[in-house]
């Protein structure tokens, strides 16, 4: 029997698998819940198996669904790579790209390597810095494209490409004191601002014991037991753990990363921007 699955079906399936609810998935792919339900029903009929266990309030993958999820992500990535490579294989030029260090370290190596592989004539100039420094440089015309952390309630503009929970983190075995010792980046830093604002609202006593502009410096200080820090939930390295909720530290708002690009962008920079957005969407979903 011929088998065909389209991009909409794949996106719908992946969104439901990752969010665990049809409601959140519908918002992610910008479709109605009934449309998503129909897409999944057609997909299950084609595959001849159930992909989701719907007996609980939260939708979870079946064993067959877990297997298909890996294939679905690979199919989405291959579709985009083929499109990117065949659309403009011979573009050339220079792109000035800015990104926060932690995001660059964890998520961008494969994204940038893939772009260079498909567009070898493009010169990528990448700079890592604190978000507010990147934004200042962007407004001064120093970058064509940047990824910037932002508070979605205060800062608008750009294209949202990532959203991730922030957590308090400490070295294994570390017990936070009543007066908290903090390991943070210097100003300007969104994580620092979020941490201090949350502690002040909760009327928790604190002092900054170590300041580092680099992620490596922050991690080393936390591992040495100099204090606690704030990290994205999926960027916690070995030797550091999220602090348990019973410590009653205040909750932190999610981290959001947006892509910002110049109004008048070169053709090659437009292609690069599309590549970054699509690649991160595939990673996230």
Secondary structure topology:
Elements (H helix, E strand, L loop, with lengths): L6 H13 L2 H8 L3 H15 L4 E2 L6 E2 L1 H25 L5 E7 L1 H18 L3 E7 L2 H9 L5 E6 L8 E6 L1 E6 L8 E5 L5 H12 L4 E6 L3 H9 L5 E4 L7 E3 L12 E7 L5 H18 L1
Parallel strand pairs: 3-4, 3-5, 8-9
Antiparallel strand pairs: 1-2, 5-12, 6-12, 7-10, 7-11
Descriptors:
12 strands; 285 residues; five-stranded mixed β-sheet; three-stranded antiparallel β-sheet; alpha/beta
Describe the structure.
With 285 residues, this protein is of the alpha/beta class. The protein is built from 9 helices and 12 strands. The chain has helices at 7-19, 22-29, 33-47, 63-87, 101-118, 131-139, 190-201, 215-223, 267-284, and strands spanning 52-53, 60-61, 93-99, 122-128, 145-150, 159-164, 166-171, 180-184, 206-211, 229-232, 240-242, 255-261. The strands form 4 sheets. The protein has a 5-stranded mixed β-sheet with strand order 4-3-5-12-6. A 3-stranded antiparallel β-sheet has the order 10-7-11. Helix 7 (190-201) links the parallel strand 8 (180-184) and strand 9. The longest helix is centred in the N-terminal third of the chain and has 25 residues, at 63-87. 29% of the residues are buried.
């Amino acid at each position: 029997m011929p088998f065909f699955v389209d991009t909409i079906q794949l996106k719908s399936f992946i969104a439901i698998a990752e969010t665990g609810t049809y409601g959140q998935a519908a918002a992610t792919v910008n479709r109605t819940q009934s449309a998503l339900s129909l897409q999944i029903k057609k997909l299950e009929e084609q595959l001849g198996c159930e992909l989701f266990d719907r007996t609980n309030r939260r939708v979870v993958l079946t064993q067959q669904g877990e297997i298909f999820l890996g294939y679905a992500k690979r199919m989405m990535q291959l579709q985009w790579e083929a499109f990117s490579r065949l659309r403009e294989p011979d573009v050339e030029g220079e792109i000035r790209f800015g990104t926060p260090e932690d995001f660059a370290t964890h998520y961008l190596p494969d994204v940038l390597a893939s772009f260079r592989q498909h567009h070898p004539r493009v010169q990528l100039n990448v700079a890592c810095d604190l978000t507010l420094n990147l934004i200042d440089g962007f407004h001064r015309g120093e970058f064509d494209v940047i990824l910037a952390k932002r508070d979605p309630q205060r800062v608008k503009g750009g294209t949202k490409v990532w959203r991730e929970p922030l957590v308090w983190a400490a070295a294994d075995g570390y017990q936070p004191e009543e007066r908290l010792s903090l390991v943070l980046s210097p100003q300007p830093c969104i994580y620092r601002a979020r941490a201090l604002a949350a502690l002040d609202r909760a009327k928790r006593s604190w002092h900054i014991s170590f300041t580092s502009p680099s992620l490596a410096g922050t991690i080393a200080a936390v591992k040495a037991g100099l204090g606690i820090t704030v990290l994205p939930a999926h960027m916690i390295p070995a030797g550091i753990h999220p602090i348990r909720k019973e410590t009653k530290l205040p909750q932190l708002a999610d981290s959001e990363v947006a892509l910002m690009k110049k109004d008048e962008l070169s053709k090659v920079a437009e292609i690069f921007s599309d590549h970054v957005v699509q690649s991160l969407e595939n990673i996230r979903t």
